[in-house]
């Protein structure tokens, strides 16, 4: 039985998207004081980027699994995989924002200025931009799933928007892994 009235999906999507993006920009902009969070040993803080790369890789696999499951008509497997992917995204974002707030900013890029300007920065901007675009798409597809039973969900934009969201989401996670490799492995 649906838990959200279908007519409320757009407004719930707009509200949750606005709040989420505002919180992320507040944290990234330094408006969330580190004193509101418990501290962590430097080893934990240093491990977060690597853990997030692993989370990203598992999320990509989970999204692909969910996508393949629904193409085969396995609705339960699709739902489990996509909800797992959302959980992984929340885990990634929580760890990233925690480290960002506690350390007072993003890690510096230690590579050559030309690589930073023409390779690293465009990839980073693409990663962040796609992640931001995915937020309302994810809320919308989840809202549609929560507001319709399986039979009537086929009559909504869930599949169409979900395909776009999944493709952008996979791309964003992949670009995040490239950012990590450039900043921490190649030029770390």
TrEMBL record:
<keyword id="KW-1133">Transmembrane helix</keyword>
<feature type="transmembrane region" description="Helical">
    <location>
        <begin position="12"/>
        <end position="31"/>
    </location>
</feature>
<dbReference type="Pfam" id="PF04238">
    <property type="entry name" value="DUF420"/>
</dbReference>
<feature type="transmembrane region" description="Helical">
    <location>
        <begin position="118"/>
        <end position="140"/>
    </location>
</feature>
<keyword id="KW-0472">Membrane</keyword>
<dbReference type="InterPro" id="IPR007352">
    <property type="entry name" value="DUF420"/>
</dbReference>
<feature type="transmembrane region" description="Helical">
    <location>
        <begin position="81"/>
        <end position="98"/>
    </location>
</feature>
<protein>
    <submittedName>
        <fullName>DUF420 domain-containing protein</fullName>
    </submittedName>
</protein>
<keyword id="KW-0812">Transmembrane</keyword>
<feature type="transmembrane region" description="Helical">
    <location>
        <begin position="51"/>
        <end position="69"/>
    </location>
</feature>
<feature type="transmembrane region" description="Helical">
    <location>
        <begin position="161"/>
        <end position="182"/>
    </location>
</feature>
């Amino acid at each position: 039985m649906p838990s959200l009235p279908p007519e409320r999906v757009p407004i719930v999507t707009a509200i949750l998207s606005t709040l989420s993006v505002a919180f992320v920009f507040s944290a990234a902009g330094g408006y969330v004081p580190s004193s509101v969070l418990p501290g962590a040993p430097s080893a934990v803080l240093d491990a977060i980027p690597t853990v997030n790369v692993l989370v990203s890789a598992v999320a990509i696999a989970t999204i692909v699994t969910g996508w393949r499951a629904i193409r085969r008509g396995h609705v339960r497997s699709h739902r489990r995989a996509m909800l797992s992917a959302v959980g992984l995204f929340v885990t990634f974002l929580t760890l990233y924002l925690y480290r960002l707030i506690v350390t007072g900013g993003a890690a510096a890029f230690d590579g050559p200025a030309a690589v930073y300007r023409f390779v690293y920065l465009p990839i980073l901007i693409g990663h962040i931009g796609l992640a931001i675009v995915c937020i309302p798409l994810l809320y919308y597809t989840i809202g549609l799933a929560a507001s319709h039973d399986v039979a009537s969900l086929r009559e909504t934009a869930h599949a169409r928007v979900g395909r776009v969201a999944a493709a952008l989401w996979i791309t964003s996670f992949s670009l995040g892994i490239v950012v990590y490799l450039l900043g921490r492995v190649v030029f770390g």
